[in-house]
Amino acid sequence: MNMARRVAALAVLIFGVTFTLRVRGISDHFWLLEDQIRDWSIALSSFSELPLVGSPTHFDGYTIGPAFYWILWAIRITLGPWFQNLPHAGGIGQAMLQSGADALLVVAIWRRTRSPWIALSTGVMVATAAYDLALSALVWNPTMGSVLARVAMALVLLGWHDGSTIRIASTTAVAWSAVHAYTGAIFVAVSVFVAILADPIIRRNWMDVRRVGGVVVMTVSLLQTPYMMHRLSEQFIDPAMGGVSDSVGRILSGRAQPAIANSVAGYVDAVHFIAIEPWRVPFVGWMLVVCAGIVAVRYRRDRSLLAMTLLPQGAAIAGYSLFLGDLNHYYYLSLMPAVTLMFVLAATALPPPRLVGPIAVALLVLALATVPGRLSFAATMHQMPQYRLLVDGSRQIKSVGRPVRAIETDFALPRTADPEFLYTVLGGHLDSRSPWTALITTDGRVTYRNVGDRDVGF
Question: pLDDT digits over 279-332, tens only?
Fold first, then answer.
């Protein structure tokens, strides 16, 4: 009972601290660009109007299932009314899920390693990674994919899937929903499936292998039902991942070679940018190789742990070598918990057992010391300080009740931002017949301009 209370207290602490860090100032600088406007507009509709597939990709396709929109819709109907259905409610909801995933992962690592210090060290490093922190309170499907992948990883480390068909199905569903949200989570999902199947295969219990494999296949098939309904309705015209299939097709036909060097370089660069910056560390690639070797030897008997740390990284390097486009950092978000856990495990694997605890404590102190720098770096990315002006201005225009044909600003906005979106979310309507145009100014005021007339202050 005392241990259960300690675990619960730690989980609550992790959730509270990380959630506070993620949502601080969100109502002032929420990042509201094209993707967020599109996805929150979809979440504002009824459940029956949600698409049967996921978000559009920048490769003329879409993700292979609607889990992201289902979850975002659930966030909107539960949290949205508390924030006038403004889009930063979606960011708060995603931050809650992210922090809940962090708390679950810390508990899972504690249970797996029997060391709260290893768990806390890993948790602090994962949750305060600057790039991840900057993205965690957005309405964005790669972030949701990372959250679900993190939950699936934690469930495997907890052994949640052992001995129960329902638990196998739920773990599989979470892992595959991560792929629905963002295709880059496929490497974690496949690793989860390997971990689920590993034990019965090692035991050569073929009846259990068939049972577990059947549950995995059935769960994935059920989750793909909406996608198949969409493809049937569109008569199989629009491919899901056109850019990926094009790259694979070129490689298989011999017109191109696998981009192995580019994949390795992209992976190492992403690890440095997401998990290490704003500091510069040399030889990150070799560090990853050494840590992987140490963990592979030290934990060779813990197949689930290896599946959740080493396998996703190797699978990502192999998988992205079949992709001939540029590799963006956010492609690797779902891998960072595995990378971080591998580093902590490697650092505590070689010393004598009596030194493992002190070394883990030292890693925790080091991780906490880097938090201020990481927070400062995160504050430089993916923030739109004009958001508060747009919210306040839209509320003023709506309260007046005067129909306007357009809303403009006298300050610059990012290219894909829309100064009229928040006004429509609040219930305002644009009227193309109105002679009035509203102008939101940098000092928070709204002025009205009549066509052919001077500005009217308000």
Answer: 999 999 999 999 999 999 999 999 999 999 999 999 999 999 998 888 999 999
User: Side-chain half-sphere of 149: how many Cα atoms within 13 Å?
Assistant: 31
- When the pLDDT of each residue in the chain is averaged and rounded to a whole number, the result is 92
Q: Are residues 11 and 157 in the same domain?
A: yes
Cis peptide before 312 (omega within 30 of 0): no
**Residue 295 corresponds to which tokens in the numbers above?**
């963990």
Is residue 311 included in any domain, yes or no? no
Radius of gyration of the chain (CA): 24
Reported for 376-380, long-range contacts at CB under 8 A and 24+ positions apart, including other chains, are 376/278, 377/130, 377/277, 377/278, 378/130, 378/131, 378/133, 378/134, 379/134
Verify that 76 and 25 share a domain, yes or no. Answer: yes
> Is residue 341 included in any domain, yes or no?
no
Structural domain contains residue 201: yes
On whether both 452 and 355 belong to a single domain, the answer is no
Q: How far apart are CA 419 and CA 417, in angstroms?
A: 7
Number of domains into which the chain is organized: 2
pLDDT tens readout for residues 159-200: 998 878 999 999 999 999 999 999 999 999 999 999 999 989
Would you call 2 exposed, middle or buried from its count of C-beta atoms within 10 A (0-12, 13-18, 19+)?
A: exposed
Query: What is the CB-side half-sphere exposure of residue 162 using CA atoms within 13 A?
Result: 8
Tell me the residue range of the domain where 450 lies. 387-456
Residue 295 lies in a domain: no
407 touches 440 (CB < 8 A): yes
